[in-house]
Write a structure and sequence with these properties.
Chain lengths: 287, 410, 257
């Protein structure tokens, strides 16, 4: 029994120690730093202040948040519109190649998004494939300058995050019982009603899961706007990076991070509510 | 010690994989003909010849195999790590991108046996922030611009240099030494001097149209400009257009410059400092600011690219090598600096990068065609319009504030 | 909805996924530095890649960190999952919550929080800071993978083992690990890939003397397009492909058994 207790407590102690030191403590430190004063020479001055948060209540920072929100939202919407039919078709397939096709979706999911973003650059450049093809076909007369605009950022984000939308949707739709759709059809519903009244509520938790998995990284990934975006595509992630590494205003950067974390928390709460609703629907279905 | 940990970690998954028992009670899946999974539970399997009680040798064999694989792995990692163990004979250099040629680095390693860990940055602010955040960062050499040398030495971030260890110091042009930003060159050794001007691809724009900074504000350049991602460089454009000095510390003037730049923002497509060369070569951007060396390198690959010295004035900057306080390989750092100061090496890097060398010995060795190339060595009459960048002191935080507002104002 | 429409939609999305990568691989064999047109087949860029000793060192660093981080994270994560499954202890809910927060927390917030921590304890940024950060963000993924597989186990086995006199440690070693090894291996592969591809967190916590591959690629991408970079990315993609194949085989093995 003693060996048991020893084993148990060593395990728990290890995990607690590691996580509290390197996960819990840093987050608390961020909170603390966001309430400190900025010092140009020593990085932080140990003086409590809410100045950083006050500084954020500035139309310009609102603009950044709003801009990030819009781009991330647009990206999520596009991913949803592209991903839902795809996941639906894939999940409902009866072909023997289904697992192979799923495997083909997983590969981009595992490939580094940096490499995939770089792959897009070589297509969108002024002398890239897209322009060369369009110019030679005579469709355009001057190269399209897509790169270094917000459109390029959205394309890059959608490209990187689409697998993150497809996989949760797929997992959720696969569990969908086809008898519901059959029953609805028997009762005389047309396709739109079936979609709105049957499929959507049942797959709601999958949809929300996908949205969460796409929206959060879209807000905080800084290297995609950094590589593909122009002067106008500053997102929250870039702002934080800028504060920490260029403007070296750590307190302000921490304040922005806290705001980002809190908004992420709110989003997750919405996810859990939606999940609960989804579960309610599923429990009804198990009658 | 790292080697031990690597061994230990290779060991664990191997042992776990080998020491396994095939009794697998619990859920089992089979695939039926239509591809759907069916599961049924089984109780603990009956006859099992693989349990350790019946086959004590299995454990031993597995461990033996694991050790054999471990030895093999150990030899391989030893082979790879032997290079890494020579960590002490290195020098960590942190320099601007496109500011040296890799041949020179290789030559240095060949001659001295010291390996160069070369990292790059695209702005003084990034380098400064990195050193501030990490005072013992281990960079042995950094290359700040004039005004940053001034600021960093005042804040005690740089080490005073022992000139006795730099025998090639005598080759430097005295006109560029002993300036206000670093009296007596106690902390810095000039590396290059560079000019910021207008870069234009003449295949897309007429040269006569872009002779002044003020031309950037023309409405036909909407969403076409490349501006350097450098706070002082960008503000200097606005300050020069408004008729002030680029080193102006007056808060009112800085605010006006900020407002002027706000008007320019619709024309700006991209802020970038380290990819300027390839952006111009690939014609992703055809008009903007650039440092003369970058544009010279770009012009070698794309004949349409030209460099213009703006008529309303431009900024000259001297970038210098300095040793930060946290440097760990001091002797190697001195050897590197001395190597760079050698006339033939200085000439090599100047020719490769297109920047003007402050090294008189190197200048004597350069071909006439380079010396008369106005892109690298502008005539005195042109240099009269230039202003050397200097530290703005306390106004720095005002600049910072407006720069951030400018960039996020979008 | 007819078959053709479904088929073409699926194909279109697959093309969208793979077209840029295929272009990248094709260009890595293209005998031209800047042009987009095909100039002939060449292995020059791969040769250049092989000759680049800097890159070899950087890649080795990346591999070192990823292997170590994956292994240690797997150990700690497996232990964590076991504890969460079997024991009731003080702060269990908090630990659960912490794991959840770690998974969904934006990488950038994690990166800066670790940077602040290392700055505060005056630790030099380099190999150790990078290793610790990677282990920290890999642990929750391993824990979740192993935990979900644990919940599928029959609880009676532990009872049976207890009856037969096995201690906790013995049942851990002899029952849990063997039965869960596919999940543990999957967790290892997952953390290995996450660690190898991580840009955001590594961006903040690595030091000058320890450059890793994703950051190296990032700085090269910022400077501009280079054919050698195409070759490098193709190789990285091939490695990822191999890992995914192994991962799928492992999963399939687990199902067949």
């Amino acid at each position: 029994m003693k060996a048991d207790r020893l084993f148990k407590w060593t395990n728990i102690a290890t995990i607690w120690l590691w996580l509290s030191l390197f996960a819990l403590l840093p987050i608390i430190l961020v909170l603390i730093t966001s309430c400190l004063e900025n010092d140009p020479v020593h990085l932080v001055r140990w003086q409590f202040t809410l100045e950083n948060y006050r500084a954020l209540i500035n139309p310009i920072y609102f603009k950044v948040f709003w801009h990030s929100f819009c781009i991330a939202g647009l990206c999520t919407l596009i991913c949803l519109c592209l991903g839902f039919p795809f996941a639906y078709l894939l999940a409902r397939m009866q072909s023997k190649y289904k697992s192979l096709l799923l495997f083909l979706v997983i590969i981009p999911f595992w490939t580094s998004s940096l490499i995939r973003t770089y792959a897009i650059i070589s297509i969108l450049k002024a002398k890239g494939l897209l322009n060369t093809v369009l110019l030679s076909l005579g469709i355009i007369h001057k190269p399209l300058s897509i790169l270094y605009t917000p459109s390029a950022v959205i394309i890059g984000l959608v490209y990187s995050l689409l697998p993150f939308m497809i996989l949760p949707l797929y997992a959720n739709i696969e569990k969908l019982d086809i008898r519901f759709i059959d029953a609805a059809r028997d009762l005389g519903a047309n396709t739109i009603t079936i979609f709105a009244r049957v499929i959507l509520p049942l797959t709601l938790s999958g949809i929300v899961g996908g949205i969460v998995l796409v929206f959060l990284p879209a807000m905080s990934m800084f290297y995609i706007p950094d590589i593909l975006g122009g002067a106008k595509s500053l997102l929250v992630g870039n702002l934080i990076q800028n504060e920490f590494l260029s403007a070296h205003n750590w307190p302000l950067g921490s304040a922005v991070s806290m705001v980002l974390t809190i908004s992420m928390g709110l989003l997750l709460l919405i996810y859990r509510r939606a999940d609960k609703i989804g579960q309610q629907h599923e429990s009804i279905s198990e009658i | 010690m790292r080697l031990l940990i690597v061994y230990f970690c290779y060991f664990i998954p191997l042992v776990l994989k080998n020491v396994r028992f095939s009794q697998q009670p619990g859920e089992r899946y089979i695939h039926s003909h239509d591809g759907r999974k069916r599961s049924f539970r089984t109780a603990i399997q009956g006859e099992n010849h693989d349990s350790p009680l019946e086959n004590p040798h299995r454990d031993k064999k597995a461990l033996q195999n694991a050790f054999r694989i471990l030895k093999f792995v150990g030899y391989i990692s030893l082979f790879f790590n032997s290079a890494a163990w020579a960590q002490d004979n290195v020098v960590n250099v942190y320099n601007w991108s496109s500011y040296i040629s890799s041949d020179v680095l290789k030559e240095f390693t060949q001659e001295t046996g010291i390996k160069v860990n070369y990292a790059t940055y695209d702005s003084n602010e990034t380098m400064y922030a990195k050193l501030k955040a990490n005072p013992t960062s281990g960079y042995d050499i950094v290359v700040p611009s004039t005004y940053f040398v001034d600021r960093m030495r005042k804040q005690g971030m740089l080490q005073p240099l022992d000139k006795a260890k730099l025998s090639n110091f005598k080759y430097l042009n005295p006109a560029l030494l002993n300036k206000a930003y670093d009296p007596d060159n106690r902390y810095s050794i000039p590396y290059f001097w560079s000019v910021t001007g207008i870069a234009v691809n003449t295949h897309y724009h007429a040269l006569s149209e872009v002779q002044n900074w003020a031309d950037f504000w023309k409405p036909e350049y909407r969403k076409q400009l490349l501006l350097l991602d450098d706070m002082h460089e960008v503000f200097s454009i606005a300050l020069l257009v408004l008729g002030y000095s680029p080193n102006d510390g007056n808060p009112e003037h800085i605010r006006q410059a900020y407002l002027k730049l706000r008007q320019l923002m619709p024309n700006v497509r991209l802020f970038n400092a380290d990819g300027v060369k390839s952006l111009f070569i690939d014609e992703d951007l055809t008009l903007g600011m650039g440092w003369n060396g970058d544009i010279y390198q770009a012009a070698q690959e794309n004949s349409g690219i030209q460099f213009v010295y703006p008529k309303d004035g431009f900024v000259v900057s001297i970038d210098s090598m300095a040793i930060p306080i946290g440097a760990t390989h001091l002797n190697n750092a001195y050897r590197f600096i001395n190597f760079i100061l050698r006339p033939d090496i200085a000439k090599k890097i100047s020719l490769a990068t297109g920047y003007a060398s402050p090294n008189e010995g190197a200048v004597k060795l350069m071909p006439k065609s380079i010396l008369s190339n106005p892109m690298i060595y502008p005539a005195q009459s042109i240099l009269k319009r230039s202003v050397v960048q200097a530290d703005v002191g306390d106004a720095e935080s005002i600049y910072q504030k407006y720069w951030e507002l400018l960039k996020i104002g979008g | 909805m007819n078959r053709l429409a479904k088929f073409s939609y699926l194909t279109a999305i697959y093309c969208f996924f793979y077209f840029p990568i295929i272009i990248l691989i094709v260009y890595s064999f293209n005998n031209s530095t800047y042009s987009s047109l095909w100039h002939g087949f060449t292995l020059d860029w791969y040769k250049q890649l092989g000759d680049d000793t800097d890159l070899a060192v950087v890649a080795l660093h990346s591999l070192e960190v990823s292997v170590l981080a994956a292994t240690l994270a797997t150990c700690i994560g497996t232990l964590a999952a076991t504890c969460l499954y079997r024991y009731l202890f003080f702060g269990k809910k908090l630990l659960h919550g912490l794991m959840f927060v770690l998974i969904v927390s934006p990488d950038i917030v994690m990166g800066i929080s670790l940077l602040i921590l290392f700055f505060l304890i005056k630790m030099q940024l380099g190999f150790w800071s990078l290793l610790i950060s990677h282990i920290t963000f890999c642990i929750p993924f391993v824990a979740v993978t192993v935990y979900s597989r644990l919940t599928g186990l029959d609880k009676n086995i532990f009872e049976a083992a207890r009856d037969l006199g096995a201690s906790d440690f013995m049942s851990f070693r002899r029952i849990i690990i063997p039965m869960l090894w596919p999940a543990i291996l999957a967790g290892w592969l997952l953390s290995f890939t996450l660690s190898l591809d991580d840009v955001i967190i590594s961006f903040f916590v690595t030091g000058p003397d320890f450059q890793i591959l994703p950051l190296y690629i990032y700085s090269l991408v910022r400077i501009g397009l280079k054919p050698e970079l195409n070759a490098l990315c193709s190789v990285m993609f091939a490695i990822t492909l191999c890992i995914v194949v192994v991962f799928q085989l492992v999963l399939r093995n687990k199902e067949v058994e």
